[in-house]
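Inverse folding, one chain.
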């Protein structure tokens, strides 16, 4: 049996506000994305994941949903969404949408109804607690994206606290209530019926809550509760989600955001084949550019994730400083592309990393995100013109550095660019089942280098990544191999060199 599509796919994350703007209002939209599908087909991605485009008051830029089954007018209409899916599918590109099950917006009609009175029919769709004698919140949980606020807000209308692991505008749903489960399953079916191929599921590990709302251990504070919560009731919830997806044919998939910085726990959400198809595993994202530390993270995935399910790999997204900025140079960003696209598992790219974008520098008076994440959400520059292809020079956030030269048009015209490197790496994957789904064998390598083979039957690739700023002798690993792709573009098609250049990475094939 051949592997399901999501194992061999490369997924490309689009943050709709920041990708492409068809209306010229400075905020990206669905028609903007649709107009760029040919660029994505040229690049060679297999699937796109769209961050939320649903109706939202935008307190968390769309991760606060007020209608799960409609498109926010800022982004377009349901007809635009249908057209986007149809056009993507025509190009062989799958579409994954974001599903935000842990919380709604405080403007969602469910919450409006729930907060109206203590005996409202939907009161129990959210999590409420009585005020305490000393006026303190019901427990010590810390909210996410703000310094150290509590996860509780006292609602004056009914004089009870409601729970919100994120902003007060994002009240947590009560997944113990079967009506909530049914309503949220209905949301999945709404989008499955519209033809989506899968879901990225937001803070999935946090859905089940300790019914006694026990305090977090004081020594763990101020880690936000959303990064600590992993109550056992979540597994049952995830199995239920999986069974909804299995009502449909075509290998519909779910990838969970499991923001627990413990790979063994992340692995547990695969749940012996009854849970997630894929889970984001974030420890590698937070790992510095160092061969020893990366080797450790790769080993950890082999040890913990591989026995449970198919790994995933990600270096950047809409919540974290871009890896081009974290690693500090384009040479490293290029080598990181080889690493990301060479490891066993499904790679997730974040729009703009193929351009080597750095985070924007956001002056104080342009800061809009309470979580400090504006830099990585800077709009993607498509051209070198003042409006960078957006129809206005004043997009919702400042442009990333050097957009005059570092933009999609200029890099496409330059075969030596990082954009062309990503394209060659994706093409190499498409031509190699070893790279897509093959076994992985880690090799002994000199200090500063991580080396591994990917093998599928007679197809094989060898990968070498130099994490140092010095040349390293790799003659013993290179002998008998040919360069398929080089992070700096040198020597492709020639016998593998005896030495890796500083921060250089290579994909090798048999002559
Ligand atoms: C996830 C999202 C993040 C959002 C949060 C609350 O972590 O990736 O952007 O703010 O959930 O929905």
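Residues assigned per position:
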């Amino acid at each position: 049996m051949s592997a399901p599509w999501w194992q061999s796919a490369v997924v490309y994350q689009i943050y709709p506000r920041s990708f492409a703007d068809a209306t010229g209002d400075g905020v990206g939209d669905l028609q903007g994305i649709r107009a760029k599908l040919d660029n994505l087909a040229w690049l060679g991605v297999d699937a796109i994941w769209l961050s939320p485009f649903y109706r939202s008051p935008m307190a968390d830029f769309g991760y606060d949903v007020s209608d799960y089954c409609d498109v926010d007018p800022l982004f377009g209409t349901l007809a635009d969404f249908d057209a986007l899916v149809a056009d993507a599918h025509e190009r062989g590109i799958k579409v994954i949408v974001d599903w935000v099950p842990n919380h709604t917006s405080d403007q969602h009609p469910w919450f409006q109804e729930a907060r109206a009175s203590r005996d409202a029919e939907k009161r129990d769709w959210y999590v409420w607690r009585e005020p305490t004698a000393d006026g303190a919140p019901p427990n010590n949980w810390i909210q996410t994206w703000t310094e150290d606020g509590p996860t509780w807000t006292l609602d004056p209308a009914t004089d009870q606290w409601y729970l919100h692991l994120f902003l007060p505008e994002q009240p947590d749903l009560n997944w113990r209530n079967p009506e909530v489960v049914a309503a949220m399953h209905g949301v999945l079916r709404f989008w499955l019926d519209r033809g989506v191929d899968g879901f990225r599921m937001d803070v999935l590990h946090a859905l089940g809550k300790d019914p006694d709302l026990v305090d977090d251990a004081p020594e763990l504070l101020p880690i936000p509760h959303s990064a600590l919560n992993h109550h056992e009731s979540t597994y049952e919830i995830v199995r239920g989600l999986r069974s909804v997806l299995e009502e449909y044919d075509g290998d519909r998939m779910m990838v969970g955001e499991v923001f627990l910085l413990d790979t063994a726990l992340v692995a547990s959400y695969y749940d012996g084949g009854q849970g997630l198809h894929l889970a984001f595993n974030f420890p590698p994202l937070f790992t510095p550019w160092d061969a020893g530390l990366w080797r450790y993270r790769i080993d950890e995935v082999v040890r913990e994730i591989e026995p449970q399910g198919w790994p995933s790999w990600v270096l950047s997204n809409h919540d974290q400083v871009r890896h081009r900025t974290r690693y500090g140079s384009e040479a490293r960003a290029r080598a990181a592309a080889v690493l990301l696209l060479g490891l066993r598992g499904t790679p997730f790219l974040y729009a703009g990393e193929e351009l080597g974008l750095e985070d924007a520098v956001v002056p104080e008076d342009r800061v809009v995100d309470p979580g400090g994440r504006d830099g990585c959400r800077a709009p993607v520059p498509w051209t070198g013109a003042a409006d960078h292809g957006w129809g206005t020079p004043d997009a919702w956030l400042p442009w990333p550095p050097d957009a005059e030269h570092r933009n999609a048009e200029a890099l496409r015209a330059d075969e030596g660019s990082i954009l062309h490197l990503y394209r060659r790496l994706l093409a190499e994957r498409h031509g190699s089942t070893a790279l897509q789904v093959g076994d992985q064998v880690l090799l002994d390598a000199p200090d500063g280098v991580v080396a591994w083979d990917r093998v599928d039957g007679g197809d094989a690739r060898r990968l070498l990544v130099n994490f140092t700023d010095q040349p390293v002798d790799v003659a013993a690993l290179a002998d008998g191999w040919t360069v398929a792709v080089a992070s700096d573009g040198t020597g492709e098609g020639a016998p593998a060199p005896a030495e890796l250049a500083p921060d250089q990475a290579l994909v090798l094939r048999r002559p």
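Residues 60, 63, 100, 166, 202-203, 257, 318-319 surround alpha-D-glucopyranose (CB under 6 Å). Residues 160 and 347 are 44 Å apart (CA to CA).
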